[in-house]
């Protein structure tokens, strides 16, 4: 019995030591490939959050390797486990719009007229995120703007590939627009809003609804550091911020491939730019080009990328990258000029910064009124963590105040 006990203790010791070494190795590897520039808001706090996220990812991978659950399932579980109590200022109810789960936040304070409506799409790279992860943010928007907020729990990749998320968001939005007066919302004052991947979905939904004559015109779109294209992962912001948490350049490409195909088998080709034929790339250069980025955003360094030829078999797997419902930056002018008033928030230390800047230019070139707010000390994901107790960032609160 003593021998068995001793062996068990030794096994546990080896397991714990191996686990610690694995976590430390992952942290060291991630550190060597990451950078937090001195201009980032509260860099020490960001580094700590980054370490926590690395540890979660490592634990998830261990659980996946021993057959307990997938890494994605574990990460989703860790994100969703926090629950908030009753809000004294809001009525909160879970419903279904066209088989899509939604959560509605309605201010309790009486209103003399119909309210504004905000349809919100959460971020998370189309893989993570949920109604729960953006609960605090949606509550704040509803309370501070005295709006009815509808948070959409769209289907996630890789289980549900493109266009599942887009279709869920579109169907939920149309349902709300048709039934808005039931929630005391003015049908002429409905806004679509989203952060990161949610910003992508908001832009795509806004474009689809722009030509609809059977529905009220959207009042506005709010795009919070949106990802809007997958043609060029070598724009200045992708080079300058490629290793800045919380979104690395490689991870941005990984997410969009997971959304499109359910796997990332063409990651290297996408990163080097050999996933799209040169003639198609040149055709879209009028919209997706470093030449359209203001010079002040290139001072931290930028090296133009040489165009590479695209193997036919690679293009076949990612050719839908040219669809505006996946990459809204590629929509034709005839659609863009019909878009509603827009608010775009970008962060200096974010790989997706230039997607927002390019879309801002496209909208303005087509006569769409744009309010642009740039967080010079911000990083990707900063709005989402604006009021997460110790993990909050003053810059994130500043960004949210401007959104409100």
UniProtKB/TrEMBL annotation:
PROSITE patterns to which the protein is assigned, alphabetical: LIPASE_GDXG_HIS
InterPro entries noted in UniProt: AB_hydrolase_3, AB_hydrolase_fold, Arylacetamide_deacetylase, GDXG_lipolytic_enzyme, Lipase_GDXG_HIS_AS
Name under which the protein is recorded: ADCL4 protein
Family: Belongs to the 'GDXG' lipolytic enzyme family.
Sequence ranges assigned to domain Alpha/beta hydrolase fold-3 in this UniProt record: 118-264, 323-383
PANTHER family: AB HYDROLASE SUPERFAMILY PROTEIN C4A8.06C, ALPHA_BETA HYDROLASE FOLD-3 DOMAIN-CONTAINING PROTEIN
Catalytic site positions: 196, 350, 380
